[in-house]
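Board notes (copied after class):
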Amino acid sequence: MSGPTDFARHRLLLMYKGDISALVMFAQQANGSVCFPDALPILSSPLEPEEFSETKVNVHPSALVNRINQLLQLDNDLLRIETGFSEQIDTPGGIVTVHMARFRLLDPPHQLMQSRDCRMCTLPELRGRPPAEMELLRRAYTAMMEG
């Protein structure tokens, strides 16, 4: 069961990877953040895997994708969770877990995301984001290219 508070401790990266070209792009909100639905708090920092905290109750990432689909009014079959990606971020309010969902399209969804007040960006275009987001993007890119 999921609800509107699911994102209090979770975020999603929305990415596109071309199957043929290996082009990797990330969705960026109008406020500049690559985390959906909300940006990470200031002073957030990524944890190393050995620092990850175990939680007894977790929200299944597909429930988060369903909520993003509702929030952005996306078709239900447009995003697929990348099961191998889960990163924890230390924030002033506690640990936030970041998952990644991949667009299931042949071409990057530029027009679709522009109509949702977002844009698709390559990693170099996202330079200058806060350090926690840049580290998340680096880990996500590595996971996609090595996975």
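Comment from the instructor: The two ends are 29 Å apart (CA to CA). The first helix runs from residue 61 to 72.
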